[in-house]
Amino acid sequence: MNFTLIRQREVQQGFFSQRQVTLFTIHLTVGREQRNVAIISDYMEHITSFVYCAQQILVRFIKKNFPLTHSVNSILLFSDGASGHFKNNVNICNLIHHKIDFELVASWTFTSTGHGKSAGNGIGATLSKNILLSIAKDFFEFSQKQQLEIAKKSNRDNPAVDVFNLEADEIEKVKNNILNSRFEKLQALHKIQGIRGLHEFQPISDTTVQCRSTSLSTKIKTHSFK
Q: Which backbone phi and psi does 28 adopt, to 5 degrees?
């Protein structure tokens, strides 16, 4: 979701030059432990490349905070079915490369788009009330510092929200070095037909994914990107 940065006591002309930030939120559950993650970025496009970079941050966070004692070897991803950046052939193509790219197996389950609120919405609400700064990096630094200070005062080991910064230049670098060539190859491959009616995707190889209409469906459709 995007939020507009508002300066306190700004001049009237400032109304015509307001900047926005992207706030991407994640609620993470590992065993009985739960963590909240927020990614603040100056990249305004809601596309698959942004999601891929967010997954990079998430995987690094998991490996750092949940070492081998938790035996984390797979990730179950849940989100709504927004087609621009989540439920599309490009993202599913990235999903089947998740094991190669991040050394963790992953599957993805989609809920109905726009139905109800989740923990992620609460994370966004916690941080968005502080959007009184001029640029995304300032907002990130303020939010990160605030969360750490609150955790310290409350004698908590971890902040309520772990805040990360994702700059547009970093996303463009990942696109150029990894994703563009993958997406170009995808153009010549068979796409998943009826993807909007499918809600769970489980990779079984680096070219093939199993698709279900719901997570409980016994009818499985297998698709190979060939």
A: -110, 130
